[in-house]
Amino acid sequence: MSAPPDLPDVVARAFDVSRKAGYVSFCRNETGRLLAALAATREGTMAEFGTGCGVGTAWLRSGVRGPDTKIVTAELNAKLADAAAEIFVDDEQVEVLSADWSTLLDKGPFSLLFLDSGEPSEVGVDSVADLVEPGGIVVLDDFTPCEVWPPIAYGRVDTLREQWLTDERFTSVEVMVAPDASALIATKR
Ligand SMILES: C[S@@+](CC[C@H](N)C(=O)[O-])C[C@H]1O[C@@H](n2cnc3c(N)ncnc32)[C@H](O)[C@@H]1O
Q: What is the pLDDT of residues 43-72, one digit of tens each?
């Protein structure tokens, strides 16, 4: 797959790396644009759990405004981490770690945290609440929009989504990024 021409350069480079690696588990462009828009509101350090081949990281990077804003991203699969690191080899604002996301537990607090190590991410609120600075944003994607409460997915209550939407440490919303896809945005109180 070649990248559409209207993508930010860094995202197009990430797609090229993904294609060479035969990797397709990247965030969709609608989510990417959401990440970029949110990243443009951020300073400090943003983090991503689950780099894949760096497409989500690239979207975040495309939104960064200032030279002091950093992104740190962790990928368990060393081959994928190496591939993603290629994209940012000349970029001092992005650090790709070949590591479990738990490596990032002592690198916070983060101004934005993109939880993308599962489908959807299995990382619960308790594991990361203290990693996010006040006013910081957590993003989770890969949800199927749901109009009922509690949210149902695959015939069961989606307890992860329910937890993120009700935890008192966060003010949260589920936003549809496409007719068949939604993301959660949770802001730390
Ligand atoms: C959905 S993909 C990531 C896509 C990427 N964030 C993007 O937007 O293009 C999930 C990735 O998380 C990685 N992963 C799974 N468990 C992990 C863990 N415990 N720590 C770090 N990465 C993990 C997987 O190897 C996989 O590459």
A: 999 999 999 999 999 999 999 999 999 999
Tell whether ligand 1 has an atom less than 6 A from the beta carbon of residue 141.
Answer: no
59 C-alpha to center of ligand 1: Å?
15
Q: Is 99 exposed, middle or buried (0-12, 13-18, 19+ CB in 10 A)?
A: middle
- pLDDT at residue 1 is higher than 50: no
- Residue 136 neighbours by CB distance under 10 Å: 22
What is the set of domains in the chain, with CATH numbers?
Answer: 27-188 (3.40.50.150)
pLDDT in tens, 117-131: 986 667 889 999 999
Nearest CA to ligand 1 atom 19: 100
For 56, the enclosing helix (H) or strand (E) is helix 55-63
Q: Is 151 in the pocket of ligand 1 (CB under 6 A)?
A: no
CB 69 within 8 Å of CB 42: yes
| Nearest atom (ligand 1) to Cα of 74 | 21
